[in-house]
């Protein structure tokens, strides 16, 4: 071999060992709403992303991570998310698309992930079918059927027979209501009414009156957390539904830690099912919540912050397997079957669906050290998304 061919052979060997990738920073396009009604989603996801990077010297899979943040507020306008994702790919030349606070954003960007052959890491958006919209999608957050089936089973076992369903009029609402109905009626429960409300700024008054008149044992609800959740609970109490003995059950989006203080003490006693609670007892969560409190003393960590943190954890673990290669086919193959211990508990990426399998906890709102907290008291381990069945 002459010198030239020896150097060429060396370059091939280095590339195979990951050396060729390690030199370049890894560009991650983070697409989240940072303003408008769902600004808290972007804030929390970004907190999680930054905490992971701070704890790992800014490196993922041996490469320096460079975050390119784009605000796709309101997060519900697919055309806005799509345009910004195109910019991330074409102008910013990102290696990976990540973030996605709400379902319309993830739906709109899925075809871009396919066309541009970029991995797409979903850190929050939770309509079940999102992962089916591109082979390049992997999700670390949750799905609404995954978080709605357990509360339906719990309700049926705990004396609730007649339920009225109130859901936001878009994918996650349909998924939550549909799965609740399926699990609850299979267990002998009855659905006595169903309403869909606008995703932003609904006037809950007329809906609450209809529910009051139907006299159910409980209302099952899903609303994307925010000011609407606080308004809904205020109306629920002011119109006397709680006083009538009507219970409220829901996936844990209802009492998540970013909004629970705004809801206030009327949240006490609410039972929900969810994959993450700030009060979760584990060494991983103790470390996560301590780092969060130090970095963001004015905020409380919620499931979206954990989604951002675990999204980075997934990227780190997948790139470690590929030697830093972020090409979609290599990255997705490496992501399939990954397992790690999240602040929420043990999680796995299902190799068939690229969706997250995790423990879903049943929790009750209590005051711990003067703070409203979701306290876990029962759990469904290794729970896969029933929406894929
Ligand atoms: C969604 O739009 O997919 C979504 C938003 C907020 C949630 C869950 C899902 O809490």
Question: How would you name the CATH homologous superfamily of the largest domain?
Answer: Response regulator
Mean pLDDT: 95
Question: Count of DSSP helices?
Answer: 13
* CATH fold field value of the largest domain: Rossmann fold
How does the overall form come out from the CA principal axes?
elongated
User: What is the radius of gyration computed over CA atoms, rounded to a whole number of angstroms?
Assistant: 22 Å
Chemical compounds bound to the protein: P-hydroxybenzoic acid
Weakly predicted, low-confidence segments: none
CATH class of the largest domain: Alpha Beta
How far is it from the N-terminal to the C-terminal residue, by CA? Answer: 57 Å
Helix content: 40-55%
For the sheet with most strands, the description reads:
9 strands, mixed
Structural class: alpha/beta
Number of strands: 15
Count of all domains: 2
| Residue share in β-strands | 15-25%
- What is the CATH-assigned architecture of the largest domain? 3-Layer(aba) Sandwich
H and E string: HHEHEEHEHEEHEHEHEHEHEHHHEEEE
């Amino acid at each position: 071999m002459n010198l030239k061919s020896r150097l060429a052979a060396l370059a091939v060997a280095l590339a195979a060992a990951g050396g060729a990738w390690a030199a370049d920073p890894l560009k991650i396009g983070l697409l989240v709403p940072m303003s408008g009604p769902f600004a808290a989603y972007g804030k929390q996801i970004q907190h999680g992303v930054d905490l992971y990077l701070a704890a790992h010297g800014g490196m993922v899979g041996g490469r320096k991570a460079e975050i390119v943040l784009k605000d796709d507020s309101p997060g519900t306008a697919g055309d806005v998310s799509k345009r910004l994702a195109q910019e991330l790919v074409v102008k910013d030349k990102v290696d990976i698309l990540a973030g996605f606070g709400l379902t319309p954003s993830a739906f709109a960007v899925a075809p871009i992930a396919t066309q541009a052959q970029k991995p797409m890491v979903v850190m929050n958006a939770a309509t079940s079918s999102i992962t089916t919209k591109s082979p390049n999608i992997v999700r670390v957050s949750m799905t609404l059927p995954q978080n709605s089936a357990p509360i339906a089973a719990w309700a049926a076992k705990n004396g609730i027979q007649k339920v009225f369903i109130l859901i936001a009029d878009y994918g996650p609402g349909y998924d939550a209501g549909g799965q609740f109905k399926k699990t609850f009626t299979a267990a002998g429960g009855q659905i006595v009414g169903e309403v869909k409300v606008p995703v932003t700024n609904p006037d809950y008054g007329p809906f609450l009156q209809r529910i009051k008149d139907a006299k159910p044992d409980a209302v099952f609800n899903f609303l994307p957390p925010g000011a609407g959740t606080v308004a809904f609970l205020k109306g629920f109490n002011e119109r006397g539904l709680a006083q009538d003995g009507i219970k409220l059950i829901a996936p844990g989006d209802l009492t998540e830690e970013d909004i629970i203080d705004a809801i206030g003490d009327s949240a006490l006693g609410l039972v929900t099912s969810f994959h993450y609670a700030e009060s979760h007892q584990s060494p991983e969560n103790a470390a996560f919540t301590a780092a969060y409190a130090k970095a963001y003393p004015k905020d409380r960590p919620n499931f979206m912050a954990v989604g951002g943190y675990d999204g980075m954890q997934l990227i780190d673990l997948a790139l470690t397997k590929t030697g830093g290669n972020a090409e979609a086919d290599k990255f997705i193959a490496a992501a399939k079957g990954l397992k790690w211990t999240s602040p929420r508990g043990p999680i796995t990426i299902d190799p068939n669906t690229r969706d997250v399998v995790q423990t879903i906890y049943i929790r009750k709102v209590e005051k711990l050290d003067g703070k409203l907290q979701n306290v876990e008291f029962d759990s469904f381990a290794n729970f896969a998304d029933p929406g894929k069945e």
